[in-house]
């Protein structure tokens, strides 16, 4: 688990830092009992961003147009990479300045504010709690349990005489999830992420089989988006890269954390690979089905065929194996806040109970409200732009204030433009989520 940081009542100015701090490298002072390899971290980062949502990229490209969609996908991948760099680089500077080995996401926000102007400092504790409480909400895990339960329900009930309710399948899925969610070290979750990624790639290959069964056509394919379709494309494409909640949990557990950023670096390589893959699947899928493309391209495939059923099964298993890495984030956040209050001899027992109670809560909510994904999507639409865009901008701006913005304060201008884009995603995403909730009850 991540190490904490002791609060300080007084803070020195940047120019008055002790010279010995230049010799302090936070990466060399980390003590990780079971560190994750560079490749293992890459697998986690890849899986954190790439889910079955990759099969929705043809619909995203349809909304973005062939030319704008491809260029926009690469630019959005670069933007997300830049936000990760802002966050992790600032955390490294703070660690170096305050001589601590590592910080969590919430601690980075808190300390950046504490090192800022006196007017900003009170915001630190507020933003720290906002980040922590949001990360404690197992959004992905709730959506995944419902998705897997619904998928198995559709496959089995459609091909057998069974007429079981979806809640039965959610309860059945909870059985293997008990074992997966008890894995406590990032290192030991690598095989699960690797299997999930492999299954998703298998889905992509099967999808390409269906796509290339017929000739692709450029007829009546849009090259550029309308304003209405632009908002759908930007939201879908940007959050296809987003794995902000995993940034610190995976980077803080690395054997070689210096490989996370840099050139090429895990973040950059991962997002380049994702952008290429997203664009390829998106373009060929749109060329094949045109305006008839569905929200997930699998819905365009003949549903009666066994191969289409295989895609559904692979998707369900891939998502099931993905629960572990996303389950790690809320548990790590809770444990960081409470473990000091628990006697060491009870650590294993208490953490086991926390994980089990979390899973029971997730399954209970999923069974009680099978359409919970729509409501959770609203929470994500509100908080994801804040975590993925605004907080990296806030952290970078506060830490650099007032005079470290470069020539003509270009970094400040850049951060301002990014904040405007974040506001756009927040507004459009919230409106779209509210419309989905209204449609649910029509």
From TrEMBL:
Q: Where in the cell is it found?
A: Membrane
| A molecular-function term among this protein's GO annotations | L-amino acid transmembrane transporter activity
Q: Which residues cross the membrane?
A: 38-61, 67-88, 130-152, 164-181, 188-212, 232-251, 272-289, 309-331, 352-369, 375-395, 416-434
The species this protein belongs to is Anopheles minimus
Please identify the protein, giving its name as recorded: Amino acid transporter transmembrane domain-containing protein
Which top-rank group of organisms is this from?
Eukaryota
A Pfam family for this UniProt protein? Aa_trans
Which keywords does UniProt give here?
Membrane, Transmembrane, Transmembrane helix
């Amino acid at each position: 688990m991540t190490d904490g940081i002791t609060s300080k009542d007084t803070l020195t100015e940047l120019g008055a830092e002790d010279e010995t701090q230049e010799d302090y490298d936070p990466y060399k002072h980390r003590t990780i009992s079971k560190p994750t390899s560079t490749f293992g971290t890459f697998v986690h980062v890849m899986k954190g961003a790439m889910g079955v949502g990759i099969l929705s990229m043809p619909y995203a490209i349809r909304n973005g147009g062939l030319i704008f969609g491809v260029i926009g996908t690469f630019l959005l991948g670069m933007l997300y990479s830049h936000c990760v760099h802002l966050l992790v680089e600032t955390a490294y500077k703070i660690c170096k300045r305050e001589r601590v080995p590592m910080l969590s996401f919430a601690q980075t926000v808190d300390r950046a504010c504490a090192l800022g102007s006196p007017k900003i400092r009170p915001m630190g504790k507020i933003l720290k709690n906002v980040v922590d409480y949001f990360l404690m909400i197992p959004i992905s895990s709730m959506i995944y349990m419902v998705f897997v339960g619904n998928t198995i329900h559709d496959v089995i009930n459609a091909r057998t005489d069974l007429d079981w309710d979806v809640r039965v399948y959610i309860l059945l899925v909870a059985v293997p999830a008990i074992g997966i969610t008890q894995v406590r070290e990032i290192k030991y979750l690598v095989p699960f992420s690797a299997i999930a990624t492999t299954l998703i790639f298998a889905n992509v290959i099967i999808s390409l089989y269906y796509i290339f069964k017929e000739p692709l056509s450029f007829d009546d394919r849009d090259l550029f988006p309308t304003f209405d379709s632009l908002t759908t494309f930007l939201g879908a494409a940007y959050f296809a890269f987003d794995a902000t909640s995993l940034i610190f949990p995976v980077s803080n557990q690395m054997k070689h954390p210096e490989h996370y950023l840099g050139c090429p670096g895990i973040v950059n390589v991962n997002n380049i690979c994702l952008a290429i893959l997203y664009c390829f699947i998106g373009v060929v899928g749109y060329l094949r089905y045109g305006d008839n493309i569905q929200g997930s391209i699998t819905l365009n495939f003949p549903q009666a065929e066994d191969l289409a059923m295989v895609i559904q099964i692979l998707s369900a298993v891939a998502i099931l194996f993905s629960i572990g890495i996303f389950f790690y984030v809320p548990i790590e956040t809770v444990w960081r806040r409470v473990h000091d209050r628990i006697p060491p001899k009870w650590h294993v027992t208490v953490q086991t109970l926390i994980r089990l109670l979390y899973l029971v809560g997730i399954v209970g909510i999923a069974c009680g409200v099978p359409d919970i994904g729509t409501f959770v999507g609203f929470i994500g639409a509100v908080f994801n732009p804040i975590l993925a865009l605004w907080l990296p901008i806030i952290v970078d701006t506060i830490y650099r204030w007032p005079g470290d913005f470069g020539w003509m304060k270009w970094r400040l201008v850049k951060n301002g433009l990014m904040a405007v884009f974040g506001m756009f995603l927040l507004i459009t995403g919230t409106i779209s989520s509210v419309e989905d909730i209204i449609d649910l009850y029509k």
